[in-house]
Amino acid sequence: MLELASYVGARWVAGTGAAHTLLNPTTEEPLARASSEGIDLDAALRHARTVGGPALRAMTFAERGAMLKAIADAMQGEREALLDLAIANGGNTRSDAKFDVDGAIATLLAYSETGLSLGAARFLVDGEGIQLGRSARFHGQHVAVPRRGVAVLINAFNFPAWGFAEKAAVALLAGMPVLSKPATSSAMVAHRIMQIIVERKLAPEGTLSFLVGSARDLVTHLGAQDVVAFTGSGETGAQIRSSRNVVRHAVRVNIEADSLNAAVLGPDVEPRSDMYELFLKDVVRDMTQKAGQKCTAIRRILVPQEWYGSVKQDLVELLGAVRVGDPKYEDTRMGPLASREQLADAREGVRVLGGRHAFGGPAPVGSKGFFMSPTLIEEPAEAVHEREVFGPVAALIRYSSNPAEIVARGNGGLVSSVYSEDQDFIERTVMELAPHHGRIFLGHPKIELSPGPGTVLPQLVHGGPGRAGGGEELGGPRGLALYMQRVALEGSRPVIARILGKA
Amino acid sequence: MLELASYVGARWVAGTGAAHTLLNPTTEEPLARASSEGIDLDAALRHARTVGGPALRAMTFAERGAMLKAIADAMQGEREALLDLAIANGGNTRSDAKFDVDGAIATLLAYSETGLSLGAARFLVDGEGIQLGRSARFHGQHVAVPRRGVAVLINAFNFPAWGFAEKAAVALLAGMPVLSKPATSSAMVAHRIMQIIVERKLAPEGTLSFLVGSARDLVTHLGAQDVVAFTGSGETGAQIRSSRNVVRHAVRVNIEADSLNAAVLGPDVEPRSDMYELFLKDVVRDMTQKAGQKCTAIRRILVPQEWYGSVKQDLVELLGAVRVGDPKYEDTRMGPLASREQLADAREGVRVLGGRHAFGGPAPVGSKGFFMSPTLIEEPAEAVHEREVFGPVAALIRYSSNPAEIVARGNGGLVSSVYSEDQDFIERTVMELAPHHGRIFLGHPKIELSPGPGTVLPQLVHGGPGRAGGGEELGGPRGLALYMQRVALEGSRPVIARILGKA
User: At what angle do helices B188-199 and B162-174 cross, to 10 degrees?
Assistant: First the structure.
């Protein structure tokens, strides 16, 4: 069986000890094994800091951007192989697999362009110069420089390609070497991407390392100049954030965790209207794409009392047409969940949400593979605002007055969406939702190829307060801030001007 | 004796139970008592969130700025009384007291102007609109809106006025109600400022609350929309950051903690030159102003081997001329430390730093009051890069090659300074210091009224990575980000334009 190795200290290193077996979640066949036991994590981090850091900092933003483009191009060249791996190891439909791999490529290309636009500089000039005294001589200027540590990027199982790319693109462009750690169960895609990068020498030595298997005590090896960017469960996020070492050295941590994303249908939207149909389409896509295993997927469907019956009937009908099964068949619309653990967790979540099942439920589907029916819950328990069920599961919630108040019970989320053409309703709802979210999607039927709320775009920030982890990634050049130190230069204006001139 | 009360829920409330006694650190006379026992913290926070929050969010930035100006003007009107309190309760010389009170007023005025420049808006538009699709219709725009919680502002004992003002000005301007908690030992100045604000009704109900005495379990009452901004010891900062509740709800926390600020004399700076004299002046000011109790004070004095003897001799002479004593006498240059605990801690710190005492030392000074001699340490132990001695204490360190490497051992700081006229040396040193600092001060003898590295300016960011807590405050409009939620609006361009038009 294939043994996945880690790439640390500029070489491939296989772990020792008990390995984790990666399965095909459709057939439960074992595909590969991975272990990080025995790997010298301290040495791996040191190599990244001392070899990769200086190499990256010597490159201009444009050069770092060109590196990202080369990675994107190489992935594009191996796209078919990557899709096949995602189908086999992730239980992805071909459409799901494209979503992941093409999302990764698009994000790398977007940051490659950001790099080009930042040009020949090696650090950022932040804002205008500031006159500090009565005379113009006393001057201040903020700049942002790459942090001197390692960016430890810990990704979730659902997007092995995109999750890698969206973090690594930003960190590398900022000038920080990366140690990327995919979730083990679906690591084959990320592992193949790393192989492609290494085989073609697309990144200078030490700039990109890769750890497969358990993260072990990785965060206890981090210091004041390191960064952790984590996507995954709130529980693991909390462990990282409260780790003694992280707290003591103020290791910078970004967490993207649980989120009970809501879609709000406006009271003005009559059934059968274009806006109504868009709403249904976005809800069904988010429930079934990647079998609902997207951190941005709609979990709470808020519908005005008046249209409740209609929405319910339409969703039940649309979900009934979703063919669940082996993703190798072209007419399969939804594959299995990613692992036995995820399936068990999603089934348990359905039980916790209570209510009635307008469609589906937690009953087993088939005898092999980690399959689950799309499940639409009615009259859920209050837990619907607390428990993220990471599967093809959403709850229908009726509202009579202010939907934003109901959404806010989720205590912070990544994205919520509003479907309405009543500008007053939109503005009122957006302003009430805004403090609780990182992004608000406004459905509009005239936007061609609208990606819906579930798609993370590199140009817009991704993250959210509270339950969502309090983090922020992407957002075009905004994302660089996580990996840089902002510092104010204070002194004589000509001296500072010369420092910037050599930037 | 004066009983200091807290101001919560729009009324003054005295604590019950054992009170802390506030002393005059010069005479050890008791001046006042304070306790927060028995105060309903949940109710205080709720009142701020539900009464103060809506009131502030209804105001424009210009209106919030006008409120800050009114507070500054009222403080200016009571300046003499505030200075007297600072001298009595803080052991400040009159010059120290002015530094604190005038710093507070200047910061309030600076943010008042920021408010005016932001005008009639109630939230921030962040950056340009972004075309997201092939057609211009699909559009993105980032905005930043006030968070819906309370800004809990916990200040250190050394700047009861400025510490209050620099945090409250930014939070209030951002649109968040404030609960301010001064350090108990020196709370009389902050308490009087709060009385002035309440007496003159300068802030709408619920927008500004005040808790004197122990913070008790305040942070366990906070939620996802609240913010904690803390200045104080790294140890307390770590407790706040790892508090279960803070971690679980991703309560936003900003910490400004320990810092081993360095001043670096360039090899080009010959004794008796203007740059050399400026360097000496800044070092002596930082060692003695506020008896060295400034988070930004120079703790490590890095001098090239060649000038070591000269610098040592000059510093010893200058420190010898500093008259330590009762701040009520006009020729007193340095008063006592703020409390018995601070004195004990500083004396213990001197012991930990080891080395030899070129001047001063930990021996008791006088029989009354918390006095300590300015102390210049030579050949310190490695602890000089780890232990912040919060008093009139600094260590002289010689370097032969790269001073930035030595500075970096401090593992993250608020500010370091470079005194040189060799542009290559400046650039090389600044670029190496930058990732480890929030600010770099470049000494220049031609800048009139140069405040030196120890003065925090509202226009420049204040904070630092690693040991300094990993936080960032001030920096003009940059400071608002801590108290706001950035959110991406994604949808139809005209719909988003209309949302912004009503801003």
Answer: 40
Cβ pair A461, B486 in contact under 8 A = yes
What are the tens digits of pLDDT across the range A342-378?
Answer: 999 999 999 999 999 999 999 989 889 999 999 999 9
Closest CA relative to residue B491, chosen from A278, A473, A163: A278
pLDDT at residue B502 greater than cutoff 60: no
Cα-Cα end-to-end distance for chain B: 50
- Longest CA span, chain B: 79
Q: In this structure, what token pair is assigned to residue B213?
A: 């005495």
- Return the CATH fold of A41-257+472-499: Aldehyde Dehydrogenase; Chain A, domain 1 (3.40.605)
Q: Where are the beta strands (DSSP E) in A35-169?
A: 124-131, 138-146, 151-154
- Nearest by CB to residue A492, choosing from B435, B447, B499, is B447
Q: What is the mean pLDDT of residues A292-311?
A: 98
Using a pLDDT cut of 90, give the percent of chain B over it. Answer: 96
Residue for token pair 């505030």: B82
Nearest residue, CB atoms, B248 vs list A127, A238, A431? A238
Question: Cα(B183)–Cα(B197) distance, rounded to whole angstroms?
Answer: 19
- The two three-digit tokens of residue A160, written as one number: 């092995």
pLDDT digits (tens, 9 = 90+) for B220-237: 999 999 999 999 999 999
Q: Which residues of A touch B496 (CB under 8 A)?
A: 442
Antiparallel, parallel or unpaired: β B375-378 and B356-359: antiparallel
Q: Is it true that domain A262-459 has CATH number 2.60.130.10? A: no
Asked if residues A180 and A208 have their Cβ atoms less than 8 Å apart, the reply is yes
Q: How far apart are CA B328 and CA A361, in angstroms?
A: 78
Q: How many CB atoms lie within 10 A of CB B16?
A: 11
Distance CA B202, CA A118 (A): 46
Q: Which percentage of chain A shows pLDDT scores above 90?
A: 96
Say if residues A392 and A372 touch (Cβ distance below 8 Å).
Answer: yes
Contacts of B130 in chain A (CB under 8 A): 459-460, 476
Question: How many residues are given for chain A?
Answer: 503
CB spacing of B486 vs A472 below 8 angstroms: yes
| Neighbouring C-beta atoms of residue B94, cutoff 10 Å | 17
Helical residues (DSSP H) of A321-468, grouped into ranges: 340-353, 403-408, 423-433
Phi-psi region of B131 (alpha: psi -120 to 50; beta: other; left: phi over 0): beta
B218 close to B190: Cβ distance less than 8 angstroms: no
Q: How confident is the model at residue B489 (pLDDT cuts 50, 70, 90)?
A: very high
Write the ipTM.
0.97
Percent share of chain A, pLDDT over 70: 100
Phi and psi, residue B437, nearest 5°: -140, 160
pLDDT bin (cut points 50, 70, 90) of residue B503 is: very low
**Token pair in block for residue A75:** 């992935």
Residue A503 predicted with pLDDT over 50 = no
- Please tell me the predicted confidence (pLDDT) of residue B18: 84
pTM of the prediction? 0.97
Task: Give how far the C-alpha of residue B222 lies from the chain's centroid of Cα atoms, to the nearest Å.
Answer: 22
Tokens of residue A137, six digits = 């001589």
Please, which residues have CB within 8 angstroms of residue B195's CB and are 6 or more apart in sequence? none
pLDDT single digits (tens) B413-429: 999 999 999 999 999 99
Residues from chain B contacting residue A478 (CB–CB below 8 Å): 127, 142, 486
Catalytic positions of B: 256, 295
* SS3 labels along B84-147: HHHHHHHCCCHHHHHHHHHHHHHHHHHHHHHHHHHCCCCCEEEEEEEECCCCCCEEEEEEEEEC
Mutate which of A444, A482, A500 to test chain B, going by most B C-beta atoms within 10 A? A444
Domain ranges of chain A: 41-257+472-499, 262-459
| Amino acid (1-letter code) at residue B120 | A
